[in-house]
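S1.2 Input.
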Amino acid sequence: MKKIYTVVEDIYKLMETKDADSSVGVEAEIEKFGESVKALMRKEFGREKRQDNRKLRLSNIGKTDKFLWNHFNGTKKEVIRPNTYVKFMYGHLVEEMLLFFTRMAGHSVTDEQKRCEVEGVQGSMDCKIDGIVTDVKSASSFGFKKFKDGSLAFDDPFGYIDQIKGYARSEGETKVGWLAMDKVNGHLAFLKYDLEDEEAPAYPVLKKDIEERIIYIKEMVKQEEPPELCHATVPDGKSGNMKLAMGCSYCHFKHACYPELRTFLYSSGPRYLTEVVNEPKVQEIL
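S1.3 Output.
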């Protein structure tokens, strides 16, 4: 039986040789992949769409307090743009593709979309790869570095750590990991953490009890007043202007938190300014 620490190497070998592991039923895996993609398309475009009205899920418990308060209490949020939906779909397709590659390379993939629950909050884990609770992610080149160098625990604006800790707690597991792909150039990485490894540099972050976090969240979102802002604003280079921190830039509630927020379109993408001292010489999105 193969071990998780060779999964990236084995997938790369599969892609080079196009030869599946000798233990694999190739046609069966191709059929499984096809059925998974069809199920995804039915979920997204079928006439009978599944509605999920849960305010708290294991997939979002790692989000910041104010985001969860806003989400739970129906604060007005940005309309999701069509291109963002395309990006979401791309991420789902990448997940199915990577799991297909993983199985074709001879690694075990089990418990796909298994229902999990912690303190009454439910969710569905991606899978276990070689027995390790695993989340599959596609990321930008910048975001991918955190999976590659193991620094995710110290810079986790999207709450991936608490999310996977929830799945692990539900399963009674302590070893977790992410199979990640750089969606720009196809590089892969598997980041593994042991939640009980007291010698690991990330242990001070990982040791925090997820059940206590969930109990706190369930009470916090019911409070009349929202929590404090999630992140402080940061300088926009040497311009004298102030902009949103990265964690706020991706948030659907940023205009609710900053009603006077201004958006400018730079070559690198939109930049959200909370204070403008020097007017940027680029287009403003109104």
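S1.4 Remarks. Residues 82-104 form the longest helix (23 residues).
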